[in-house]
Amino acid sequence: MTIWRVTGGRRLSGELAVQGSKNAVLPILAASILAPCETLLTGVPDLRDVRITLRILRHLGCTVEREGDQIRIDSRPLSGCEIPHSLMRELRSSVIFLGAILARCGQARLSLPGGCELGPRPVDLHLEALRALGADVTEQGGDIICKGSDLRGARVILPIPSVGATENAMLAACAARGVTVISNAAREPEIVDLQKYLRALGARLSGAGSAEIRVEGFAPAPFVRHRILPDRIAAATLLCACAAAGGDITLTNVFPSHFLTVMDSLSEAGCDIITKSGTVTLRSDGRLIAPRPIVTRPYPGFPTDAQPPLMAACLRARGTTVFTETIFSNRYRHALELRRLGADVSIEGRVAFISGVERLTAAPLTAGDLRGGAAMIVAALAAEGTTEIFDEEHIRRGYDRLEQQLAALGADISCDRASN
Ligand code: EPZ
Q1: 208-242 residue pLDDT tens
Q2: Model confidence at 117: pLDDT above 90
Q3: Is 116 a known active-site residue?
Q4: Is 27 exposed, middle or buried (0-12, 13-18, 19+ CB in 10 A)?
Q5: Which of 32, 110, 311, 362 is 20 to 30 Å from 269 by CA-CA measure?
């Protein structure tokens, strides 16, 4: 258990480089086993989810070395094609290994990832995509068992633009004979970063970032070097923190075009935002007005992962802010917890209504998931007094030294491990 202590009332100021993207590095780490090769990744954030993924790579027989923000993976000694429940249960997004192990080994066995705090996390679209490529996929005793040493290129039509299913299809298609076309593919920047890595690895791949991705072959290279994309959600979270607390911060190592929808909402709320290539500056007096209604959508729509931190920034905004969460069925746990600070929150199904209040007052909070925990930190920056956030290691899953980053910008924040 980690306890975060945040004393509100301090404006933020200064310049900060944004971490590498969690949701870009995880699929690329899985892709590093597609062929016997050495991969050097730079700009890798130090996150719990990354550490668990490195444990999975070692479990499969790869050698993995980390030095600062660089990770070197040698997948030539890979010997395993199974991931046990003990590892899968720690990181549901490890289902992305399914396509990679199947492509490399011709078979794969993973324990079915459970649901998570956001609600059920089905993988039916992942499995259908692999079946379309000719894999035999069965479920047995909580495991997913895939066989397919002769995958064939196919048209994979995704009923919804699932990020993970798109990534699994891309990885498995690298081992398929013939051309694969993925239709209704997710368009997230992290998918484009995966394509960039796969092309460097020797895959003939195009279309990432659009709704149609083509995979036409794979001639593996022995060595790949790749710099991880900056984390657009970590950047959005820091902007929301400054909007809530007030201040003037500049973020570097960012692609502003990757989170335009979040910046649009913050501008509507009264923040001044200036973007240049690779940097974003946000100025706020901390007294916001309710932005236009926010509806989460697949990219390039408003990102579901930024809904919690933006909600936290709007708790004192004059007027009523309306959120509609269309991606996950249970992504308002933080909203109910924020009431303990005095926030005026009401939930009706997928819609959350936030009526701005004059003041927020510190109260003990419990983080229930990664982005909800980050939202509590954002809200606590604008609350009077010292808020304690009790966190079962959710926040560190996706934020690299967030307390150091916010403290460097002037926040009064610390975090300590509490004995369980
Ligand atoms: C990725 O999750 C991200 N995680 C999530 O970020 C992000 O919120 C999500 O995409 C949406 O952008 C990683 O990249 C590691 P989906 P993923 O498949 O791939 C349903 C964070 O905080 N669905 O696009 O699991 C699913 O239930 C995390 O960093 C099926 O029904 O998301 C959801 O309602 C949270 N069947 C919707 O699709 C499937 O087989 C979108 O899920 C797969 C998904």
Answers
A1: 999 999 999 999 999 999 999 999 999 999 999 99
A2: no
A3: yes
A4: buried
A5: 362
Q: Are residues 203 and 188 in the same domain?
A: yes
pLDDT value of residue 248? 98
- Spatial contact of 87 and 59, defined as CB atoms under 8 Å apart: yes
Residue closest via CA to ligand 1's atom 18 equals 162
Q: 91: domain CATH number?
A: 3.65.10.10
Ligand 1 pocket by C-beta < 6 Å: which residues?
22-23, 26, 93, 121-126, 160, 162-165, 186, 304-305, 327-328, 370-371, 398
The least confident of 4-18, 84-98, 332-346, 395-409 is: 84-98
pLDDT greater than 80 at residue 118: no
* β-pair partners for 289: 318
The protein residue whose alpha carbon is closest to atom 9 in ligand 1 is 163
Q: What is the pTM of this model?
A: 0.98
Residue 398 CA to residue 23 CA, distance in Å, equals 9
Q: Which of 163, 229, 231, 369 to mutate to test the pocket of ligand 1 (most atoms within 8 A of CB)?
A: 163
Give the β-pairing of 70-74 and 38-42. antiparallel
Other beta carbons within 10 Å of 155: 11
Question: Which of 227, 244, 263 finishes a domain?
Answer: 227
∠ CA 336-290-237 to the nearest 5 degrees? 65
Boundary of a domain, candidates 193, 209, 227: 227
Calpha distance 52→29 (Å, rounded): 11
Instruction: Identify the band that residue 420 occupies on the pLDDT scale cut at 50, 70 and 90.
Output: low
When divided into structural domains, the chain yields a total of 2
Q: In angstroms, rounded to a whole number, what is the distance separating the alpha carbons of residues 230 and 57?
A: 23
